[in-house]
């Protein structure tokens, strides 16, 4: 299926590894020109080199910096001639016990996982509406739907973003202009982030990491972790021309781990 994205420009945040990289790869395969960001220059340039080698016909620009800072956002936005697709993504806050988190920890979580996506949306959404096309995808977490006790910072910040998007995405001046805003809620994917979370769980329970990983795999009917590539494929479809009637949704991709009907 031709997704109708060839020649579009996308800004993909935190794209050097993991789910962000999976999204960048899938969009590149559809002929989308990319600006990719990450804090680590070495991993970012390595990913850019992979994308250019696999898809020599597209342009890939890199911006090394912290997207959660005003300077990082300004640099990323300036590098993209026109943002048709925005994939919001940032590393989640650390796991732990809420009794140990002070105000600074909460503000940092809100800055990274709620306020930064909102600032980027604000910067691009009216231009998208003016051109009659826009796709905004926020990578949040399955914990928004089924909270995980040790991820309280993430639960809170990402739930705030979810509520904001629910209202904004339904504004007629956006939806009627072919601008969609959706959230992708990943479950357990094989990423560095998952390993950090599971290491925290292992330390808390005193079990070996391998045991905790095996138990987590058993928590989903799929009996495995997801891959960044299949997550990226879903992202590309949500960004496609065919997905113009899909907006304001929270799309859970977790191998069937969530047990509810709704």
TrEMBL record:
InterPro entries listed in its UniProt record: NAD(P)-bd_dom_sf, SDR, SDR_fam
Gene3D superfamilies found in the cross-reference section: NAD(P)-binding Rossmann-like Domain (3.40.50.720)
Record family assignment: Belongs to the short-chain dehydrogenases/reductases (SDR) family.
Record-linked PANTHER family: 3-OXOACYL-(ACYL-CARRIER-PROTEIN) REDUCTASE (PTHR42879), NADPH-DEPENDENT REDUCTASE BACG (PTHR42879:SF6)
Annotated protein name in UniProt: SDR family oxidoreductase
Species, as recorded: Ideonella aquatica
């Amino acid at each position: 299926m031709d997704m109708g994205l060839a020649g579009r420009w996308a800004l993909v945040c935190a794209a050097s590894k993991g789910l962000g990289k999976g999204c960048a790869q899938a969009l590149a395969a559809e002929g989308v020109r990319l600006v990719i960001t990450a804090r680590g220059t070495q991993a970012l340039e390595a990913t850019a080199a992979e994308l250019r080698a696999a898809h020599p016909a597209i342009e890939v620009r890199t911006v090394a910096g912290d997207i959660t800072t005003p300077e990082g956002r300004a640099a990323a936005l300036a590098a993209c001639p026109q943002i048709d697709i925005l994939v919001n993504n940032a590393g989640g806050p650390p796991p732990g016990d809420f009794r140990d988190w002070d105000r600074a920890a909460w503000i940092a979580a809100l800055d990274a996982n709620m306020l930064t996506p909102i600032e980027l949306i604000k910067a691009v959404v009216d231009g998208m509406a003016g051109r009659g096309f826009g796709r905004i995808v926020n990578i949040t977490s399955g914990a928004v739907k089924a909270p995980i006790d040790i991820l309280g910072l993430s639960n809170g910040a990402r739930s705030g973003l979810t509520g904001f998007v629910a209202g904004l995405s339904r504004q007629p001046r956006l939806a009627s202009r072919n601008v969609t805003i959706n959230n992708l809620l990943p479950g357990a994917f094989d990423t560095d982030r998952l390993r950090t979370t599971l290491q925290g769980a292992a330390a808390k329970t005193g079990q070996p990491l391998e045991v905790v990983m095996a138990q987590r795999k058993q928590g989903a009917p799929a009996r495995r972790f997801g891959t960044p590539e299949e997550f990226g494929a879903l992202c590309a479809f949500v960004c496609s021309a065919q997905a113009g009637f899909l907006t304001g949704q929270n799309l859970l991709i977790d191998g069937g781990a969530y047990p509810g009907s709704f």
